[in-house]
UniProtKB/TrEMBL annotation:
Keyword Cytoplasm among UniProt keywords: no
GO molecular function: N-acetylmuramoyl-L-alanine amidase activity
Sequence ranges assigned to domain MurNAc-LAA in this UniProt record: 120-234
Keyword line: Hydrolase
BP GO terms, sorted: peptidoglycan catabolic process
Protein name (database record): MurNAc-LAA domain-containing protein
Source organism superkingdom: Bacteria
Keyword DNA damage on entry: no
GO CC field: outer membrane-bounded periplasmic space
Length: 242
């Protein structure tokens, strides 16, 4: 009787352990499923990003947003339209970043208009490390020139990172071709407010200023600017990995 009840206790223990193991496995499966559902990325080229930072290869995932598109031309001067300039810069940046082994997703690859919340959804479901929206400035005062990088932190959200990213990009942007730096500025913009990852908006010079306009109509300058923006992103990400 004593032997039997010992056996019973042992059996109960084993049974209990097995139940717990199966139960625990189900919970982790459920959690795994849930986390996949929550963060599911619709972006084909970013969806396979491994979880955690891929430190060994220094491979980053970056979303670039060429401002405006389609019926929204952005600012313009003569036949120069912001939507075309931003797309060129973004494509040059993508090529450069890809060449360094990074994965880049452009919110648009062609001349089409995306709703701001659509851009927000792309950014937030992308798994990306950073987000940069590219624009061109304009002003009635034709003397205004130079590059400004804008950031926004909602209630201090990622403030430190966003300021760092903005500073890093602004610093690199003005390295070539005589661009003037107008510094970084905090501005409440929807495209930055919706972003859950560190993101900034670069205003790549003033189309209304003669010197900036000359730069913006020169492919070599646009390419160099794109590379400098890219280096600003990489430098920030390298720094934040340390
Ligand atoms: Zn714009």
């Amino acid at each position: 009787m004593l032997f039997n009840s010992k056996k019973k206790v042992m059996f109960s223990c084993v049974f209990f352990t097995l139940v717990m193991l199966i139960f625990a496995k189900n919970i982790s499966l459920l959690n795994g499923k849930n986390s996949i559902n929550i963060t599911a990325a619709p972006l084909e080229n970013i969806v396979n990003k491994p979880t955690g930072k891929d430190v060994s290869s220094k491979k980053y995932y970056i979303v670039l947003d060429p401002g405006h598109g389609g019926i929204d031309k952005g600012t313009s001067y003569g036949n120069m339209e912001e939507k075309n300039i931003t797309l060129k810069i973004a494509k040059y940046a993508k090529t450069y970043l890809n060449g360094k082994g990074n994965v880049v997703f452009l919110t648009r690859e062609e001349d089409k208009l995306l709703a701001l919340d659509e851009i927000g959804d792309i950014v937030n479901s992308s798994y990306a490390d950073a987000f940069v929206s590219i624009h061109v400035n304009s002003l009635n005062d034709k003397d205004f020139k130079g590059i400004t990088t804008l950031y926004y932190d909602l209630n201090g959200y990622q403030k430190e990172e966003r300021v760092k990213l903005a500073n890093s990009i602004e610093k690199e942007c003005v390295k070539n071709d005589g661009w003037e730096s107008r510094g970084i500025r905090r501005q409440n913009l929807a495209v930055l407010r919706y972003s859950k990852i560190p993101g900034v908006l670069v205003e790549c010079g003033f189309i209304t200023n003669e010197e900036d306009r000359k730069r913006l109509s020169n492919e070599k300058v646009l390419k160099k600017l794109a590379e400098n923006i890219s280096n600003g992103i990489i430098n920030y990400l390298d720094e934040s990995e340390k």
